[in-house]
Amino acid sequence: MMFFAGAVHAALIMLLWLAELAGRAGWWAPLPTVIPSTWVHAFLMLYGLFPFFIFGFLLTVYPRWMGGPTVPASRYVAAFGFLAAGMILFYFGLFTSRIVLAAALALQLAGWGVTLYALLTVFLQSPKRGPHERLLNLALAAGMLGIMCFLVGVLSQAPLAFVLTREFGLWLFLVPVVFLVAHRMIPFFSQSALMNYMMVRPAWGPPVMVVCVIGHVVFEIAGLTAWRFLADAPLALAALHHSWVWQFRRSFHARLLAMLHIAFLWLGVGMTLYTVQSLTLLVTGVDHLGRVPLHALGIGFLTGMVVAMASRVTLGHSGRALEANDLTWRVLLGVNIAAILRIMAEFAPGTVGGMLNALAAATWLGSFLLWGWLYAPMYL
């Protein structure tokens, strides 16, 4: 049920953003949202789309990873109910009242809290608790703090609250969760799909990631963007090293596996771009990349990993062959094209940049509509 909600919401989020971009281009009046549309887009991308997939996955695999008790239906159904109701009310509140929007966020927090409680219960009752689960618990708690910050921002309009929402959501919640799941699952899936594959999980990877994302947030909030490379460069090197030792090139023997490796490679690319951005700012005093690193990370890595991981998990848990058909492969290709188009838009002038931005959003939307058409019936 979580994956189904994620598939539906992926389309709704980008439809809303396309409508906003069209309004900015003069096709119609900009959307009359009660808070700035840019922050709406940031919140929905960070806290509206990914959690449905993350929670659906973790509620399933926590007991398997740690040999613990299965999550009872009463808990995951309650979590789904709060999260789905919160998202529905969120869209209504966007165009009516900040009070309604705050009520929607309260429902989101309730769903998040039920999920975290269910996962912590499994964690505490399991005999095989490991570092991945410990760090995942902390990342999910950071996500809750991010929603609380957004709630404060909605009620007070304080700019710092929205900044903290973005930093917590991207760097302390999403990047750690997706990195940790990849660190645990990509070597496992690779060993299952490739002959004579030696499974490697660098033990230093998660601790380095944690230090780097915390460092990134500290530099960003302190206004020391020019020195942010001290945190970004080590994470870029660590991510690229993981792609190398996980044998990126060999993954193309199985397209479903290659999807995971391609998506993870974007983490190394995105963090390299963040490093270049910071160093350029230090040397020249000018930011030449803008939102390029953000969208390499957000579309290429995070969105690509959701498509790749959700496809692999769905096929495996529904008893289907572990093979990516042509349409599934094209979905990931579409996500990669959307990332490249959005990066190009950052360098294009005026109207051309706006058109490329809209084209990137349309490509992203088309990819998820195709993915939903393929996989939503399996969830139903």
The overall pLDDT, averaged over residues, is 94
SSE order: HHHHHHHHHHHH
Main pleated-sheet profile: none
Which range does the strand content fall in? under 5%
Structure explained in plain terms:
There is one protein chain. This protein is mostly helical. Helix content is 80%, strand content 0%. It has twelve helices and no strands.
Task: Present the secondary structure layout.
Blueprint: H1 2-24, H2 37-66, H3 73-94, H4 98-124, H5 131-156, H6 159-193, H7 205-221, H8 229-245, H9 255-284, H10 292-317, H11 326-347, H12 350-379
List keywords for this structure.
12 helices; 380 residues; mainly alpha
Brief sketch in words of this structure:
It contains 12 helices and no strands. With 380 residues, it is mainly alpha-helical. α2 runs parallel beside α6 and α6 packs across α10.
